[in-house]
Amino acid sequence: MEMVLQRSSGGAGAMACHRAAAGSPELQESAVELRRGPWTVDEDLTLINYIADHGEGRWNALARAAGLKRTGKSCRLRWLNYLRPDVKRGNFTAEEQLLILDLHSRWGNRWSKIAQHLPGRTDNEIKNYWRTRVQKHAKQLNCDVNSDRFKDAMKYLWMPRLVERIHATAAAGDGSSNSNSNDVSCRSGLTMAAAAVAACFDSSPSMVTTTSSSDSFTSESHGELEKSLLTTRGGETISCGDWMQHVDNEFWSNTHNIQPAADKYNHQFQDQELSGWVQGFSEGVSESLWSLEDIWKTQ
DNA sequence: AACTAAATCAACCGCTCCCTG
DNA sequence: TCAGGGAGCGGTTGATTTAGT
């Protein structure tokens, strides 16, 4: 059952109510004292029952007709984000995380648009996921999530590292989290990962292009890659290896903090074939790594 | 066990878009 | 064509929960 705790009626919220009474679309609702803050069980039931009988839409009218002392906006939000029967609760699956990352790389903060492609998930939930999980990593690196630095760190550092991890896991025949994995799934995961890295490097003419063979990408080749990479920023050519070293140190010094979150997600992975590849994604989350199609095509 | 910091997420706000008269 | 209202979107806030000391 939902905890019902009334928020303070003062502060900005109360001021907002006054603004509403001063001539906004909320004018009619302000005739009665509007409730704010967390919804009570009774309110939820009232809203659910009303929508079951009359359908949704026309939220301001709905709020009045249902006898809810809430704004239409509030009713709509409560319904869409919480009460809808098909709303999915709980942690995002690996597939969902992957989809969010991919779609965000295409559309940016178009949360509603992204949510349309994740059945049962709300824009609010996706937005919260992005802000808490992804932006956290950017913050740890003292850079903006949209910065070239962060994107490059994902592309050229974390991705190869992830491939290495996957490779290592597969080579070790890891059975802890993927006890059902067989050679086929391992190879498939590695192929996908290799294709992802290749897609990253293909976008830059100066980058070393890997083959689709998982075996061709080793720690040694990654090391050589770091040394050879050059990147141009603002007309100034700098050594990628220098700043990568810095980013690398910072990032990996924080992995012990990130691991619990990764474990939390990993145990929920449903697609065994995908799970091996996605493993570690919660550690170095990507914003604009590759297109999902690139991955699926390689399978 | 108590306290603090960090993370999470429901709810709110302001703005914009779209529809209707 | 324009104005007004409703709906939806993205950003932000702050209460609660969880993790760490």
Structure description:
- GO terms for molecular function: DNA-binding transcription factor activity; sequence-specific DNA binding.
- Keywords: DNA-binding, Nucleus, Repeat, Transcription, Transcription regulation.
- The protein has helices spanning 11-21, 41-54, 59-65, 72-83, 94-107, 111-115, 123-140, 148-171, 183-202, 219-228, 240-253, 255-266, 272-278, 292-298; strands spanning 230-233, 236-239.
- A two-stranded antiparallel ribbon has the order 1-2.
- It folds into two domains: 12-83, Orthogonal Bundle (Arc Repressor Mutant, subunit A); 127-298, no CATH class.
- It is mainly alpha-helical.
- It starts with 10 loop residues before the first helix and ends with a helix.
- α3 crosses α4, α8 packs antiparallel against α9 (183-202) and α9 (183-202) crosses α13 (272-278).
- The longest helix has 24 residues, at 148-171.
- It is built from 14 helices and two strands, in the order ααααααααααββαααα.
- The protein binds a DNA duplex (21 and 21 nucleotides) through residues 3, 5, 7, 11-13, 16, 19, 25, 36-39, 57-61, 71-74, 76-78, 80-82, 109-112, 123-125, 127-128, 131-132, 136, 260.
- Number of DSSP-assigned strands: 2
Q: In order across it, which strands form the biggest sheet?
A: 1-2
Order of helices and strands: HHHHHHHHHHEEHHHH
The major beta sheet can be summarized as: 2 strands, antiparallel
Which consecutive residue ranges, at least 5 long each, have pLDDT under 50?
Answer: 1-31, 174-299
Q: What class do helices, strands and sheet pairing give?
A: mainly alpha
